[in-house]
Amino acid sequence: MNSFFFLLLLFFLLCYFFCTGNDVDKDELVIRISLNKDFKRNDYGEAIFYKDNGEILAAVYPKMGRMVIWNATVPFIFKPPAMSYVQAQFDILVRITTSKEKAEQAIAETKVHFCQWD
Q1: Distance of CA 8 to the CA centre of its chain
Q2: CA distance linking residue 89 with residue 34, whole number of Å
Q3: Closest-CA residue to 47 (of 76, 89, 70, 11)
Q4: What is the CA radius of gyration of the chain?
Q5: DSSP secondary structure string, the chain?
Q6: pTM to 2 decimal places
Q7: How far apart are CA 54 and CA 97, in angstroms?
Q8: What sign for the dihedral angle of Cα 12, 71, 101, 95?
Q9: Which end of the chain is more exposed for a tag (fewer CB within 10 A), N or C?
């Protein structure tokens, strides 16, 4: 049942995003889904979001299945896991855009990076 509400919320967020006529500079969303089920708060790996003046706006710690959606104009970094965390950190990171030009550019860049077999 939780996954139904999760998908419903995602659907409404994406509908709002694509139907509100965003500015050219604000036409992208970033989505991060955490996949490690044994992450603890002291393992770090959080996403840190910043205000325009450089102050920390928020920090979101990874948790299995946690999805964070934000506007791509918000400055952010992903802190690496702690040295004591011996597993890899797994996330799904997706960037969504309403700009046809940006989408075509990203597809072209992906082809260059992943489709060349030297």
Answers
A1: 18
A2: 8
A3: 76
A4: 16
A5: -HHHHHHHHHHHHHHHHHHS---GGG-EEEEEEE--TT--GGGB--EEEE-TTS-EEEEE---TT-EEEEETTS-EEEPPBPTT--SPP-EEEEEEES-HHHHHHHHHHHHHHHS---
A6: 0.70
A7: 25
A8: negative
A9: C
Q: Cβ atoms within 10 A of the Cβ of 33, count?
A: 16
Please give the tally of structural domains in the chain. Answer: 1
Task: Provide the domain limits for residue 84.
Answer: 2-114
pLDDT of 16:
57
Q: Which two tokens stand for residue 95?
A: 């960037």
Residue 90: CB atoms within 10 Å: 13
Average of pLDDT values for 59-70?
Answer: 91
Report the DSSP beta bridge partners of residue 30: 70, 95
Task: List all residues 6 or more positions away from 18 whose beta carbon is below 8 Å from its beta carbon.
Answer: 98
The more confidently predicted of residues 62 and 19 is: 62
